[in-house]
Description:
- Helix 5 runs antiparallel to helix 13, helix 5 (about 155-170) packs across helix 16 and helix 8 (about 240-255) packs across helix 9 (about 265-280).
- About 35% of the residues lie in helices and about 20% in strands.
- The strands form five sheets. Strands 12, 15, 18, 19, 20, 21 and 22 form a seven-stranded mixed β-sheet that branches. Strands 1, 2, 3, 4, 5 and 6 form a six-stranded parallel β-sheet that branches.
- It is α/β, with parallel strands linked by helices and about 525 residues long.
- It has helices at about 40-60, 85-90, 110-120, 130-140, 155-170, 195-200, 210-215, 240-255, 265-280, 295, 300-305, 310-315, 330-340, 370-380, 475-485, 500-505, and strands at about 10-20, 65-70, 75-80, 100-105, 125, 145-150, 175-180, 205-210, 260, 285-290, 320-325, 350, 355, 360, 385-390, 410-415, 420-425, 435-440, 445-460, 470, 490-495, 510-515.
- It folds into two domains: about 5-170, Rossmann fold (3-Layer(aba) Sandwich), CATH 3.40.50; about 170-515, no CATH class.
- The chain is elongated, with a radius of gyration of 27 Å.
Amino acid sequence: MAIKKHEEIRLNVKPMFLTLYHEYVFEGPCRFGEGMQLEKEFDLNMAAQKFKGWYKQLQDAMPADVVNLLEPVKVERDENFLTKDEMIEKLAEGSEDVDLYYIGYASRPYDLALEFAMRVGKPCAITQACCASAITSAEFLARGLEFYSFEDWADATDYMTVLRARKVLKDSKILAATRMTSAVSVSAPASVIDPEKITAKFGTRIRYVSAHELLDQISYDDPMSNHCTPGRMGLNLTAEDEKVIDKKTDELIDGAVECQMTREMVKKSVEANHGIRKFLDECECNCFTAPCPDLCATRRLNQKQFTMCLNHSLNNEDGTPSACEYDLGALVSKLILQSIGRRPSYMGNCFTSPIRNGVRAPLPKALFFTPDHVDQKMEELGDKENVVLTFHSVPNRRWESFDEEYRPYAIREFARSGFGATLRYDFAADAGQVITMCRIDPTCEKLFVAKGTILNSMGYDQTNCSMGVFFQVKDSKDFFKKQAAIGNHMPLIYGDFEEQVIELGELLGLEIVNA
């Protein structure tokens, strides 16, 4: 089975139209008219016209890239207000495939909708209609049923993205490569404390694989002779795989504005991505994370001459959320952003650079950044306030969709000895671009959400994990204080999706921490 693409997931919406008609000709406190207006045929004709108009509005409001609009179901009932089993059975047919029922009415069969929802247990929605929307909403919510009432069709359109995102979370499976522990990351212990909370809260499942088994099989060795699984058929790279890998390697190098690595070294990182994709496919997973420092400590990455950086970039571009350092919290946050924004995400260490008493707090001049490069960036930032830097060498070549043309990029090594391909992207080219960030806290109970505006780039012409983006937030001190209770790595996407991310967080029962 191929990797289940998040982009292919749609919210299955079932239109449900309920009609109340009158068998007899009479007037009363809730029925008035004259002549043919009091006849059954008139009621049914008016209901048919109302359905036609309502259904057209519903079709126009349901975007095809978000919603799979199912065939409508209609039930008619007379003024005796008698609900029969056959009515419920007709409405419930195929309910196992329905994510949301959208209700429309002709007259007042409100109790029929309620009984159906209580028996089937599926979310329902309605767009404002005189009497009907407030009555239906209140009767559903008072009984603990999931219900959405929209003031306008445009509001419904927007919220379908949120409901679809929840479904994406439920339909996701993480492939988690482990070494030291399957719970808390060694290098990112501010991540999710209990991985089972991810499944309980979001529905996202996790499949574990030994990082050593994974590394064994990122090779062209005999698949029956892997060190960790001798005598068991592995997913090792094949001659056919190598043809694909060679093609990808050449395309990657040819598409770069510059590449300061040998083809051999770039190929090793492409092999890693291809091998990981085979595991994703075999395990039917569509998200990935692996440890970094604790895997580095085995010296096997040095031996194999690759890092996970390029793998994460290529996965994210392809619509497969992929997170550094076994940071499950960052991974779920990337999944949230990608399911809302429908575009690749980025993540990195978060570091504010405030100005106090006229002096900017400097970046560390060691390990990640060279002193000269730090001085250059401090000068370029000038007196700009509320500056934040997020940095990890896992940028994308696409930023606003999964199928846009690649933007200019470079390829540089992670290790100064020449291995570990990383993409380099000049974020300065996107100065002024609004970005949206989010991160779940270690308990899976809170969601940090913020917006920023890109200012500059960091580390484009450097090596190691120095690639980053400077952006401006509304209040860096507030940002810092609130992030301090959430975690380090900060996932982000291009575009303003703050409101929808907050709505999704509220839908999931998370406490929103907005900076």
